[in-house]
Write a sequence for this structure.
């Protein structure tokens, strides 16, 4: 797109937009949402729903805002009587074959057909009840997608997504006239690793997620901005929760990272956030047994262990932990001039790219914050760190349930759940977090605020979506409290009250994050300083 | 299959001169009749010069829209940095139109010659002739003629391919036709970009009707001035036009007359008038997509682009459908609407749903269950179906409905009021 600016007015609001901008996008700049169905900024223009008809002065016919480019001096009227009646007409045509089954439709409450009909549709039908509506049976399109043809308005967003974005053209428009429906290749399934996006793209309740089917009504959901933990891509997502339970993951647009899409792996990676078998209270070893206690005693017990550890420690951290937590875990040793070693391990999986979007894929590294851990000095040589842990004075495990660290020193475990196995497994020098001296219950990604750094070094915030269970606290809070008790190294005991303050501490002491703050990061994130080399 | 009639003395046979002569279909026979002479001359000319001659002749597109042909050719990029294409629209599917069929059946070489000249004028190296799938006989003649002409190497570097449609009316719409050639579903495209900028395979393309191209060799042979002189009326409508007359006339068929010929004379003189004891009731002058004319309008209408517009309709493809006083106009309009409902490509909402809804209302009126509110509803739906879609298929459905209700309202009211026996429509 050119840098040349074009001046126009939309509903009397003057705007200047780059040459080549579509009227529908220019209208957004003017604060006007032109109703539309087939248009989607992430898909090629189809111009078929005819819903975005607007009046443009000096043009003989109404024009579709989604396929008309702006021109100097253009006067666009979205609310003229001609434009309004054209849209009312389209809505009427769309509704004649659309069932009135909103009460049992998953889309109700977030349905663009409902919204625009409410906004400018006719109050009553003129379609004589003598006629039967078009009927086609529900079809099973793929692992997570159902097609309800009766609700389909044939906007073809799904067809274009599969054809032009996923580059796996398994959907089409079959038949002609009012018999038309979305067809699927007879020998294919809608099982592309990114196929779930057709459910989000569908403006009505025609393409449904089996996972979300009849699970909740749209108006019961609370929506929180978050970052997908499925891989190192760092796709921006919205966590939809109902009464403190995550019930759905949807993409949140970010043109720099995931555009409008997320993969099915990320979409389905949320059930663990609702796990019930959580550690809900701090535990301290007393008389050979772990006992639940309060935060004061647990923090004091851990501080005692750390003070006696000659400042030598190993941190085995999860690359799913927040940057803030990783920072303070490190500072427990480093800030006090100690000798520490940190490492993480990454679960690997198959890579799956979204063909038409550059630099967007389900990445082989199934961890959201490996890059953040690297920037903070954590290494990838996990085996060596585990070996070093055996002789370390203190082993701090941060939510790494895959492996139970062994150490002859003291074991402090901060996690959401207790790792299985471990106890009595190796005998002798202790093994597994069940032999920890102190166990801290911490929040998971849905329960805290924090940041991840994606594979390209983009620092992105995620927000709290649901309450933490029991006495669990964010890991950054636990470690920053510990640090305050131990003394911050600079002699202060300043406590950190918020995630934003935790990030500020990180930003002021780590070069890669220098100058950043939660305000800067906003909802879209910004790149970490690229001049800082990754430690080997 | 012989051609049904000898030329009427008032016909001006330019394109149809050799209709009925089986020998004209062969390469030898065509050369004997002076064919391919002007092609050789044209290929030696500057492409721009050919375009200029066609511009001067005043030739306008015979497919329906009547766009000046030379002007259309001149839209092609002069600087050639991409392959250029010529598409020949031989997907004659407009109900009531059967002129291109006869051109391909009797004078396939006229079309091939005109296509090659046009391809030269627009600097296209490839010509696609998109032939309607149902045209089995014209296909055979075209294929034979093309093979013979290729053997005689008359086209120089120009390659001509025949492409067969699969039976969709909408593939006669120029951009749908291009999609179909590309192997895609025959859906009309949004314009812009126009074909001259990005047509078939995204390359600069010109698309012309069969009758338009068949006239081109004649224009080059006899000169633009001669062609321009073939007009009885408006200087903006020149040359001859084939009219396919069907319906309630004594002698239906193709008639070639000069532009500006009175429609009344075409029907009463050339076509032999109405059947005995019958009188004219209505006429659709330009294929099923244009507004219906009543008797008075028909009898005072001049057959050229402006003359028919004066009467509130369009010259269209020249498919003249004639209705006498025995006709049930409500039923006829329902049949037209049903055709468009069947053929809608399903892209645009108004067309997909509107054509089918219109048909249902008309069927209901015919079955005696209509109400007076239905007529207002039909007009309102037609308003929403006009000028709001990618192509003009839904406009075409609305045109006969609106003009029919306006001009034959009493027939609708007779069904609604129960004065007329209901018709059960399947």
């Amino acid at each position: 797109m050119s840098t040349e600016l074009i001046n126009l007015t939309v509903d009397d609001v003057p705007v200047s937009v780059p040459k080549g901008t579509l009227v529908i996008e220019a209208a957004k700049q003017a604060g006007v949402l032109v109703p539309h169905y087939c248009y989607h900024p992430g898909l090629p223009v189809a111009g078929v729903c005819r819903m975005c008809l607007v009046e443009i002065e000096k043009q003989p016919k109404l024009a579709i805002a989604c396929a008309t480019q702006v021109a100097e001096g253009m006067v666009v009227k979205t609310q003229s009587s001609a434009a309004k009646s054209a849209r009312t007409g389209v809505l009427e045509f769309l509704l004649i074959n659309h069932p009135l089954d909103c009460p049992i439709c998953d889309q109700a409450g977030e349905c663009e057909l409902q919204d625009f009909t409410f906004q400018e549709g006719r109050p009553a039908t003129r379609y004589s009840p003598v006629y039967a509506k078009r009927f086609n049976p529900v079809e099973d399109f793929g692992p997570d997608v159902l097609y309800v043809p009766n609700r389909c308005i044939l906007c073809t967003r799904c067809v274009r997504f599969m054809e032009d974005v996923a580059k796996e053209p398994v959907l089409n428009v079959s038949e002609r006239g009012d018999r038309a429906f979305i067809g699927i290749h007879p020998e294919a399934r809608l099982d592309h690793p990114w196929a779930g996006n057709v459910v989000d793209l569908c403006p009505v309740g025609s393409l449904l997620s089996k996972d979300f089917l009849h699970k909740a009504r749209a108006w019961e959901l609370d929506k929180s901005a978050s970052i997908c933990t499925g891989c190192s891509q760092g796709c921006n997502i919205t966590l939809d929760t109902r009464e403190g339970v995550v019930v759905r993951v949807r993409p949140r647009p970010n043109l720099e990272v995931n555009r409008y899409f997320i993969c099915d792996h990320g979409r389905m990676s949320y059930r663990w956030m609702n796990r019930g078998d959580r550690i809900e209270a701090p535990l301290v070893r007393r008389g050979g047994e772990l006992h639940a206690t309060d935060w004061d005693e647990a923090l004091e017990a851990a501080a005692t262990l750390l003070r006696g550890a000659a400042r030598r420690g190993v941190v085995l951290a999860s690359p799913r932990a927040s940057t803030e937590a990783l920072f303070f875990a490190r500072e427990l040793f480093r800030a006090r001039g100690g000798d520490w070693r940190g490492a993480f391990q990454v679960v690997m999986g198959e890579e799956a790219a979204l063909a038409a979007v550059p630099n967007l894929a389900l990445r082989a590294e199934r961890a959201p914050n490996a890059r953040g851990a690297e920037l903070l000095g954590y290494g990838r040589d996990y085996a060596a760190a585990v070996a070093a842990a055996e002789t370390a004075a203190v082993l701090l495990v941060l939510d790494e349930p895959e492996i139970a660290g062994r150490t002859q020193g003291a074991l402090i475990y901060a996690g959401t759940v207790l790792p299985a196995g471990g106890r009595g497994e190796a005998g002798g020098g202790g093994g597994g977090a069940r032999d920890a001296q102190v166990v801290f219950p911490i929040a998971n990604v849905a329960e805290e605020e924090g940041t991840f750094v994606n594979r390209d070094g983009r620092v992105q915030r995620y927000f709290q979506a649901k309450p933490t269970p029991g006495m669990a606290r964010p890991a950054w809070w636990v470690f920053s409290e510990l640090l305050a008790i131990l003394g911050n190294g600079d002699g202060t005991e300043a406590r950190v009250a918020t995630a934003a303050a935790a990030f500020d501490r990180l930003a002021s002491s780590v070069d890669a994050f220098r100058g950043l703050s939660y305000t800067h990061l906003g909802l879209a994130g910004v790149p970490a300083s690229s001049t800082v080399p990754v430690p080997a | 299959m012989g051609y049904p009639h000898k030329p009427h003395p008032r016909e001006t046979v330019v394109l149809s001169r050799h209709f009925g002569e089986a020998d004209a279909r062969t390469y030898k026979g065509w050369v004997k009749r002076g064919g391919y002479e002007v092609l050789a001359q044209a290929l030696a000319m500057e492409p721009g010069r050919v375009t200029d001659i066609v511009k001067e002749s005043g030739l306008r597109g015979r497919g329906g829209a009547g766009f000046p042909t030379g002007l259309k050719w001149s839209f092609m990029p002069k600087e050639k940095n991409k392959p250029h294409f010529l598409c020949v629209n031989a997907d004659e599917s407009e109900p009531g139109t059967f002129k291109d069929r006869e051109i391909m059946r009797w004078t396939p070489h006229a079309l091939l010659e005109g296509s090659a000249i046009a391809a030269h004028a627009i600097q296209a190296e490839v010509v696609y002739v998109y032939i309607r799938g149902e045209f089995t006989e014209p296909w055979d003649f075209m294929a034979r003629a093309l093979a013979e002409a290729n053997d005689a190497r008359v086209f120089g570097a120009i390659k001509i391919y025949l492409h067969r449609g699969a039976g969709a009316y909408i593939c006669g719409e120029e951009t749908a036709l291009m999609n179909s050639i590309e192997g895609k579903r025959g859906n009309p495209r949004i314009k812009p970009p126009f074909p001259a900028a990005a047509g078939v395979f995204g390359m600069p393309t010109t698309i012309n009707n069969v009758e338009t191209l068949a006239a081109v060799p004649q224009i080059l042979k006899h000169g633009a001035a001669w062609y321009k002189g073939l007009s009885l009326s408006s200087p903006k409508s020149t040359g001859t036009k084939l009219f396919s007359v069907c319906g309630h006339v004594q002698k239906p068929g193709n008639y070639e007359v000069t532009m500006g010929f009175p429609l009344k004379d075409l029907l009463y003189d050339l076509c032999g008038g109405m059947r005995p004891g019958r009188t004219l009731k209505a006429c659709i002058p330009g294929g099923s997509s244009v507004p219906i004319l009543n008797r008075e309008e028909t009898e005072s209408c001049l057959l050229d682009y402006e003359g028919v517009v004066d009467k509130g309709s369009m010259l269209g493809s020249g498919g003249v459908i004639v209705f006498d006083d025995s006709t049930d106009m409500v039923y006829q309009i329902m049949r037209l609407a049903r055709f468009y409902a069947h053929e809608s490509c399903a892209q645009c909402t108004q067309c997909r749903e509107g054509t089918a809804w219109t048909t249902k209302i008309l069927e209901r009126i015919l079955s005696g269950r209509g109400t007076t509110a239905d007529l207002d509803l039909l007009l309102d739906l037609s308003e929403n179906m006009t000028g709001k879609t990618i192509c003009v298929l839904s406009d075409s459905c609305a045109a006969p409905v609106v003009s029919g209700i306006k001009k034959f309202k009493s027939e609708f009211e007779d069904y609604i009021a129960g004065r007329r026996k209901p018709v059960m429509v399947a």
Observations:
- Residues 422-431 of chain A have pLDDT under 50 and may be disordered.
- DSSP finds 13 helices and 25 strands in chain A.
- Residues 81-96 of chain A form the longest helix (16 residues).
- Residues 47 and 67 of chain A are 6 Å apart (CA to CA).
